[in-house]
Amino acid sequence: MASADKPINTDVPEKDVFALHFLQSLSNLRRQNAFNSPDDTTNNRVKKIKKAAYVSMARAAGGTNRLWSRALLRRAAKENNKVVIFSRRKKRVTWLRRSNRRDPVDAERLRNLLPGGGAMETSKLMEETAHYIKCLSMQVKVMQCLVDGLSAK
Amino acid sequence: MDVSEKDELRNGDTTANYDDESANNNNPPPDWRVSGSNQVSAPNDSYPPENQMMDSFGQTLWYDPTNVQAVGYGGFNGVNNASSSSSSFRGNNNMDRSLEMGWNLLPPKGNGMFLPNASSFLPPPSMAQFPADSGFIERAARFSLFSGGSFSDMMNHHHQQQQQQQPLGNPTESIGLFLPSNVGVAHNDASAAMKESNVVRSSEQGNKQNVPGSGNVSEDTQSSGGGGGNGQKGGEASSKGFDSKKRKRNRQSSEAGQSHRSQQSEEEADNNGDKKRNDEQSPKSQGNKTNSGKQTSDPKDGYIHVRARRGQATNSHSLAERVRREKISERMKFLQDLVPGCNKVTGKAVMLDEIINYVQSLQRQVEFLSMKLATVNPQMDFNLEGLLAKDALQLRAGTSSATPFPQNMPMVYPPLPHGFMQQTLSSMGRNISSPLSPINGGYKRQEANGWEGDLQNVIQINYGAGDVPPDSQAAAAAATAASLPSSNMKVEP
């Protein structure tokens, strides 16, 4: 799960961290009784679960240390009309943004996929993508285990 | 001996020349001429005019080394066919050939006067003792470097100012190549030659570098570079000094096939030492690709200096661009390892597509699993299951405390008995009722302590509900909250 490239560090926490965060968010969902009152279609529930999954993944995987997790959390908070407070990581973020204009067309599709990818330089985008892929696969594993545990009777 | 002579020349003249950055190309030639007079008498006369003629830079350069290396020249004769390929002092094409043959071809086409001189050079008596190609070439290359040093400095000046085609470009090249080929080369090549000389120096350690002349000369330059690196005896020190000078000046970069050179040069000098004229903000990636021909190891500041490679534009933008591109490609390689089944794929576009597909598939998987979760447990009361699942996930070894968990959840992974976890998770239908009951209490206790909020309630309810209802399937089938225990327990036989 954790691998480190020489200059690039894409370490990802173990599965249990992801699982913990995910379950926490799910329990939060449950606490909010999100599913009970609306009694809406499965879609809403699915959406909520999905959002909880992403948010928990962002929290588990990097918190505010990763650009994509920050963007994800910010986006989620905006949906909930919450305000997310990020400790200012580095000034370099804006610096990257400035020098990004040079070649934004290159990996456009990837930018659209990755949360917060539009404001990154291409090399940074690659790095974030690598970390994102790792976290996504971890989250998928956790959810799969959960589903298996729940459904396998 | 000729060799000693050469050394003298080298030490004496070159250092002087190199140190002064002034373009006193005239100085070395006279000195050399003097010292080498015993060997090259006739050519000497031609030298001064040659030397002063900046136009015939290449020629003068060419001659200087020859003077010094009269013996080597002879050696060349023996080694190489004295074909007239060298005629293209000015021409790039024959550079390599001239290198090899080199000395025989002394007179560049453009300069007829050299011819007679060249001929006079031919018969150094002691050629026999000279080693074959490689050694001689090395020495020759060394010399050329030396002589070229001053020239190159001068050339660098020119280059710097003009940045582009220069009439004087040729000489620098020849310097590096140590042969007429340098002369004929265009400006860029000249700078490349400078690089070559740098490279040659760097290849003192024996690296066979691809001295970048023009494209044609690549092979020859390699040999000469290698030879020069190895063969130089006394001049090494001075050449080194010269080298640094040249390095400072020479910003030329060679693109074509200079990868090995840059790699080798990288080995020698660390990136940081290079002084980059261009911009400080283009960090040099650690990979070999970024480094330009020769890296000096004189760190001046904290920046990572990137050196333009031979044949490449030295524009600051292009340098930064190159560094950026290399960074991106490096990260692409990293991604390639990450995405399964991308080992055979090469090319940025295809790789990008693969990555995008993979990310999309992962996102789809997340969505699908969340859908499954929603249907599997509509009440979302699956905390306990999650707990168990979590236990199963990470507590294979049964050591929950080892997990790096947030402090607020120390109890999350209670040290359940291994068997308990396995059973609950692996085989839901297993009946663990009896062992479970005592555990339940403990579990619940722990859980109650550990969990916060409704989780505790849920769990307590679950356990409070009692025993494991046999219908765990009911739980899966969207059991109600009351049936939570059943779904959670799953231990019912």
Description:
The complex is a heterodimer of chains A (153) and B (493). With 153 residues, chain A is mainly α. A two-stranded antiparallel ribbon of chain A has the order 1-2. Mean pLDDT of chain A is 73; it is low at 1-5. Chain A has six helices and two strands. Chain A has helices at 15-31, 42-61, 67-79, 92-100, 108-113, 122-151; strands spanning 3-4, 9-10. Chain A has a domain at 14-34 and 41-77 and 115-152. Chain A is globular, with a radius of gyration of 17 Å. With 493 residues, chain B is mainly α. Helix content of chain B is 58%, strand content 1%. Chain B contains 22 helices and two strands. Chain B has a two-stranded antiparallel ribbon. In chain B, α2 packs parallel to α4 and α8 runs antiparallel to α9. Chain B starts with a helix and ends with a helix. Chains A and B meet through α1, α2, α5 and α6 of A and α15, α16, α17, α20 and α21 of B.
